[in-house]
Amino acid sequence: MPLTGNMPTGVPHPTRSLGYGIIRWCQRYILQPDGENAGQPWRFSPEQLRFVLWLYAIDERGRWLYRSAALRRAKGWGLRQDPTSRGFGDRGIHRPRPLLPL
């Protein structure tokens, strides 16, 4: 799939993205650190949901659709201020290898 600089429209089917499980894990175990919702379960923004789902998208053979990704926003928006980064690690986004059917 060629890179266009933009995410595809919509979201991948649940059988075509490992992101659904990652989102469930993050929303179960990560708490909002501050603000009016401090201590509440973390909730992704719609943009973050789509990014995670496409980042972890796989093809029919279980291979990544995208080998790499970059999420660029204006100064101050960064993942460091956002608990989303805790789901990925502070050094970048690390993905496990998808399980390939035998």
What can be said about this structure in brief?
The protein is mostly helical and about 100 residues long.
Topology:
Elements: H1 19-29, H2 46-55, H3 84-88
Helix pairs in contact: 1-2
Protein name: Integrase
Q: What does this protein structure show overall?
A:
The chain is an all-alpha fold. It has one domain (14-88). Helix 1 packs across helix 2 (46-55). It has 3 helices and no strands. It has helices spanning 19-29, 46-55, 84-88. It is globular, with a radius of gyration of 14 Å.
Number of strands: 0
Order of helices and strands: HHH
Shape: globular
Beta fraction: under 5%
User: What would you report as the Rg, rounded to the nearest angstrom?
Assistant: 14 Å
End-to-end separation:
24 Å
Number of helices: 3
Largest sheet: none
Q: Which blocks of ≥5 consecutive residues have pLDDT under 50?
A: none
In the residues, how many domains can be counted? 1
Structural class: mainly alpha
Give the % helix.
Answer: 25-40%
Averaged pLDDT = 78
What features would you highlight for this structure?
mainly alpha, 102 residues, Integrase
